[in-house]
Amino acid sequence: MVALSLVYKSYRRWRSSIFLLQLVCDTLLIQGSFTQKFVNYSFPDMDSLNAYALKKGKKPCMLGAEELAIGWGSDANFWTWAARTDSRFYSKVAHLVRVNHLEIQGKLRTNKLFANTTYAVFLVFKLATRYSGLESATATVKDGQVYEASCTVYLTFGRERGNKNQEVPRIRDDSWMEVRMGEFNTGEGYNREVVARLTQHSDFEKSGLIVLGIEFHPLD
Questions:
Q1: Options 3.40.50.620, 2.60.120.260, 3.40.630.10, 2.40.37.10; which CATH number does 59-218 get?
Q2: Torsion of CA 198, 201, 205, 208, to 10 degrees
């Protein structure tokens, strides 16, 4: 009888936990109309939860430096990595030691973003006390096979925006700098890959760039 009693108590605790999880999962609204059910007591797909978190309130989406493809990023002779010190959330930033060919690329699928929304893409960065060769670069935003645009971005202060194909940096509220790389619209019902790329190929050496990530910021 004692064994049966212990089994029954364990069963009740298990049932209570499952019931609470059901209540939580039944309240998750995906795309405003579909209720994510807790089927067969399996955990909901984390990608769906991430997409829901981004869509709620149309918050910006950041690809951290570790999620980017950085040319020679794994070679300590050219890039070093350090923990971010100005946030309670753990993340790493990339420090450019020296390269001649600067290549930074981020990819994000549009199903992670809000539908029918125009997004601006920003490189979020800082400059070290000593830097060189970072006056300008070419930024390209490619929206699947639908749209591709490029512009000249200035990574240092002292220039004014000359035309719509030139972008200058600004200081963010969190003390980081950002420069606009381009924009795109997610459309309706299409899952495309958006590629944001920053390049600067020249014979002179570049150093002193600190990369936090690439941010996708909703405009409407």
A1: 2.60.120.260
A2: 0
Domains of the chain by residue range: 2-44, 59-218
pTM above 0.70, yes or no: yes
What are the residue ranges in the chain where pLDDT is below 50?
A: 2-55
Amino acid 29: pLDDT: 31
Q: Which two tokens stand for residue 206?
A: 């570049």
Provide the pLDDT for residue 44.
38
